[in-house]
Design a protein that fits this description.
Length: 469
């Protein structure tokens, strides 16, 4: 439905979106669906390239999933769309700037920090956030110079969600599988030289509570170069989980348990590497052998109990074990961070909002013209598609507000005024046309070596291929 946009000088509605990941694009899509050519959408990203975690999070061997960018490209081809890459909110532009130029501002900047374990030894060399490893193998400019010691025999991954599964799988891909992926060149080289033989995943709760999804777990059982191993007793269900499952009959959990049970029944010394999936076990300390580098971990076995809210939780028993390892990835969840001027709940790592309308947490007053969507709205959970529903909710609020005239009244809306401002703050900005040229070059470079793409992994190299350095 087209509505009358109540803007005194009859200019189209101008909207800024901070973040060019899935949430940014689904928000833009909803805006174009509602307002057609009467909306101007400017999408800002601190990185030179669009698509957020679809480019820098989704695993390099999951190329099919990345094809969602075709949809985002169609959105970006709308005449009312502009991309300003390499422009960071809080560094190059701030709230004051945006208020002068836009009727509405949508914060969709994701969650790129990582939660910590809070155990002794966590800061030793060789103990990394999975975020860093994921960014590194995907060629994220912030992580391309990270170094990981892949000369070790055993890697421990703490956590048992889909990111942990990605990390374990990538560490075990064969040369064939790696060459078919769009992994960064330097990561390809390092992984081809890797001496890693064993990857251990640590789930603090039982198999019924494992955070991974079934297709991703199943994939671990079908790797060319690695077996999967689960200890029989750890695959068994505790009494409380059994009771809950009997009551709920949840088919996804039943299937998950079948997959894990099948892993427990397999022979596992058949391939060059092994992934060991552990349950009811937590790290309590990382230690070293005199040097600053992690050499092992003390673990504690857990048991399941029912928490106050009725959910099943893990608590430590007095059974301990040790594991030798020189490389640890902490994969216990991403974490959002605040940007200047926007109310933030630091405990949850999300922007304060109601259904996507940003609000002052003390007064509960809505901040006119300010919205949020995606991981920075609801926290770092959910697949790419989840951000669509999430963005629809936020944009429905925006539409309702615009219809009733509740929006910002910018004093300086002209398209060229914004461009002038952005270029003055960041001369090295990237447009969507720049991205398309980079994309073409990456694919052509891949083509010449029989790979899907060879990624450019620094802003400097991207400027260079565009002839701007
Ligand atoms: C390792 C990993 C693998 C995943 N794999 C899959 C998968 O295979 N399939 C699936 O369906 N889902 C997957 N997901 C989940 C999916 O990636 C997320 O649901 C989705 O990307 C969240 O979208 P978003 O737009 O909220 O955040 P993001 O994708 O993180 O996008 C946010 C964007 O905002 C930008 N930004 C940040 N700060 C600023 C700033 N100050 N100024 C300007 N821009 C800024 C960032 O550079 C980024 O481009 C994966 C997630 C991770 C972490
Ligand atoms: N292929 C895909 O579709 C794909 C790939 C990657 C990511 N994603 C999505 O992206 C989102 C983020 O994934 P994620 O793996 O980062 O997060 P996640 O799904 O929330 O998993 C986090 C894991 O860390 C554990 N954990 C948390 N704190 C811990 C602690 N202190 N000690 C030990 N373990 C701890 C959690 O256990 P508890 O459950 O006990 O808290 C859980 O196993 C998810 O929604 C995921 O599905 C999807």
């Amino acid at each position: 439905m087209n509505i009358l946009i109540r803007d005194e000088d009859n200019h189209p509605l101008h909207v800024a979106i901070i973040g060019a990941g899935p949430a940014g694009f689904y928000s833009a899509d909803q805006l174009f669906k509602e307002f057609g050519d009467r909306v101007q959408v400017d999408m800002y990203d601190r990185l030179p390239t669009p698509f957020g975690l679809v480019r820098y999070g989704v695993a390099p061997d999951h190329l099919k999933i990345k094809s969602v960018t075709k949809l985002y490209e169609r959105i970006a081809n709308k005449p009312g769309y502009r991309f300003w890459g390499n422009v960071e909110f809080g560094k190059h532009i701030d709230l004051g700037d945006l208020r002068k130029h836009y009727n509405c501002i949508i914060f969709a900047y994701g969650a790129n920090g990582s939660r910590r374990l809070g155990i002794p030894g966590e800061n030793l060399q060789g103990s990394h956030a999975a975020t860093d490893f994921v960014g590194w193998y995907n060629g994220h400019p912030d992580y391309s110079t990270c170094v990981f010691d892949l000369s070790v025999n055993t890697v421990v991954v703490v956590g048992i969600g889909n990111v942990a599964v990605d990390v374990a799988r990538v560490l075990c891909l064969t040369e064939d599988e790696l060459l078919q992926s769009d992994i960064a060149d330097y990561a390809l080289d390092a992984l081809l030289k890797s001496k890693v033989k064993e990857v251990v995943l640590l789930g603090r709760r039982g198999p019924a509570q494992a955070a991974f999804t079934n297709p991703e777990a199943k994939e671990l059982g079908n790797l060319q170069g690695a077996d999967i191993h689960v200890i029989d007793q750890e695959a068994e269900l505790d009494m409380l989980s059994r009771k809950d499952l009997d009551l709920s009959g949840d088919k996804t959990t039943v299937r998950k348990l079948e997959i894990i049970q099948n892993f427990a029944e397999r022979k596992y010394n058949t391939k060059a590497k092994v992934i060991r999936m552990r349950f009811l076990i937590s790290p309590i300390e990382m230690y070293n052998n005199g040097a600053d580098k992690v050499s092992g971990m003390r673990l504690v076995k857990n048991e399941i109990y029912r928490g106050e809210q009725g959910s099943l939780k893990a608590r430590p028993t007095d059974v301990h074990e040790d594991i030798e390892t020189g490389l640890v990835f902490r994969s216990v969840g991403y974490l959002g961070s605040a940007v200047p001027g926007i109310p933030f709940d630091s405990q949850a790592g999300i922007i304060c909002h109601s259904q996507g309308r940003i609000l002052d947490p003390k007064t509960q007053e809505i901040l006119i013209g300010m919205y949020t969507s995606g991981w920075i709205k609801r926290g770092p959970t959910g697949v790419i598609g989840t951000n669509k529903e999430d963005s629809i909710e936020s944009i429905n609020c925006l539409i309702e507000d615009v219809k009733s005239g509740k929006m910002l009244s910018p004093t300086n809306k002209g398209l060229s005024n914004v461009e002038e401002l952005v270029r003055s703050r960041q001369p090295d900005l990237f447009t969507f046309d720049d991205w398309k040229r980079i994309d073409d070059m990456e694919i052509a470079n891949g083509d010449s070596v029989g790979r899907p793409r060879v990624k450019l992994t620094s802003t400097a190299s991207m400027l260079k291929v565009l002839g701007r350095s």
